[in-house]
Amino acid sequence: MIQKLKSVISGMRGVQGKIFAAVSAIAGMTVLAGLSGWFSYENVGKTLDKVSQESLPQMISAFSISEIGAGISSGAPVLLSATDDASRQQSFEQLQVRLQDLKMRTDQFAESGFEGATIEQMNSIAASMSDNLAAIDQIVARRLELAGRISQLNEGLFKLKRDFDQTIGPYIDNTRVNTEGSIDKALDGENVSDSLIEVLLGFGLYQAGTGLQVEINTIVAGLAEASSATSLQDLEAIEGKIKKSVIQVKDSLQLIGDDISQEAIALRKHSRAMLDLIKADEGIFALYAQRLETGQQAANLLQENEVLAGNLKETTFQMVEDMRGTTDLAIAESGGAIERGKTWLAVISGPLYSWPLQWRFSMWAA
């Protein structure tokens, strides 16, 4: 009896041991499965955090930088087309705001730990853009100054031209009438020699007056043509033609130099004043030449601005591509972590589900 009881107790202990071992194994396998899943999804979480908190904001900032560069590129022609100082200052201030926004975005990239060489390149482009826009602003200010001086000079020239026109017509008419009167006297036989001298003098004054009128009109027409010249070569060619007319004007003024009539005195005054405005070191042709030079400089600066904007766009595009590659790599690593987690779960799940069967079989065998 006692022996049988010992056998039963011994069997119960064997069963308890097997149950304990089975439960412990299941618990251990469950813990291993949980740890495997935790590590796998921890890697996935880190990857998603990197993408959502670093890569995506950086890509958005990169696109914003490209947009800012495009805005600067489109704003430069607006600055160049300013028609007064107020619109110039307004356009330049708007561009300065965009430059500050560009610097802020670049600083954000630097703080996020982006590649130093790329940040340095972006800072270099931003600095060049700032210098370029400052130079454009100076060119526009210079152009507006020249436009004001040219306008003032043209007003003076055309005022003298109006005064000249009001004087030359009566002067020509008077010299013609006086000459005709001298001819009539000579034909009547009265003081023939004196009358002939008066005829010659009157005819000379008449020719000088008409010649002066023609050459002054030629000069004014040349000035109008010079105002629309598109190159220094064209401007020099027009100036050469006008210089020939200036010589003719001086010859005509010499012919009427002894005429003390009020019209002759006024003609000499107006003509010489016009010549002084044309020949001065800062005369109309000098101002036109400076305007052409500033126009060429403005075109060069605008082209430089477009190149800088293109470089900025290319840099940001490369940044986006780099970030996209990093994101793809992180996603691939995340996928690999998930697959490894699945593998470990499959490895662990086999023994986990086989232990109950093994226990039942051992119980049946016992």
What does this protein look like?
By secondary structure, the chain is mainly α. 93% of the residues lie in helices and 0% in strands. It has 7 helices and no strands. The chain is rod-shaped and about 145 Å long. The two termini are 21 Å apart. The mean pLDDT is 76.
The averaged pLDDT comes out at 76
Bulk shape:
rod-shaped
Write the H/E string, N to C.
Answer: HHHHHHH
Cα distance spanning the termini: 21 Å
Low-confidence stretches: none
Helix fraction, binned, reads over 70%
Which structural class is indicated by helix and strand composition?
Answer: mainly alpha
**How does the major sheet shape up?**
none
Radius of gyration: 49 Å
Short description:
The chain has 366 residues and is an all-alpha fold. The protein contains seven helices and no strands. Helix 3 packs antiparallel against helix 7 (284-365).
List the helices and strands and how they pair.
Elements: H1 2-80, H2 85-111, H3 116-188, H4 192-227, H5 232-255, H6 262-279, H7 284-365
List keywords for this structure.
366 residues, mainly alpha, 93% helix, rod-shaped
